[in-house]
Amino acid sequence: MRKAALVVLYLTVVALVTVPPLFAVFLTTMCMNPTGGACRTVTAKDWFAGELAGIWMPPFGVAIALIFVIRWLHRKA
Known about the structure:
Elements: H1 2-29, H2 50-76
């Protein structure tokens, strides 16, 4: 039972770390400029401020907490 829980936790951490940044990249590649002008490119600063930070930072924090739970379960085993 503990091994199954660890596998689920590992997969959850992988999903929490990989999916939100991929989603954010997908959102930044979409250009919804109604005037037809050039779209703004995303800079490194944008990843840590505004909407992009709200997309990837909370799941990353949850993943860090789950890593501590995984380590605790490994030590307990």
